Amino acid sequence: MRQAYAVYALLEALVDAPLDDPRIARAAQAVAECVPGEVVAALSLPSATDTHGSAVTEMLFADLAPAQSAAIQQAADPRAAVAAMAPRMRRRLPGGHPQP
Length: 100
Known about the structure:
globular; mainly alpha
């Protein structure tokens, strides 16, 4: 739950941010770290050049500021998902058990 509050705070800080704000990348990484890949895939988020997604994604983006929207779109990028999983994968031992 603490992670969700931290992500919310990062996204909230982007309300009035310009699209070139470096905090967008950090927020995107935080979102990618806490949202399961299956959920992101199910939303079928539009690409940066496609402004139309499913009805669910259109409703989601309707209430977001441009920088918040950019963070969510970056988080949905498959490369961001892989980058977010890398630290978790490094913490696992060869047998698949988490390190202490």
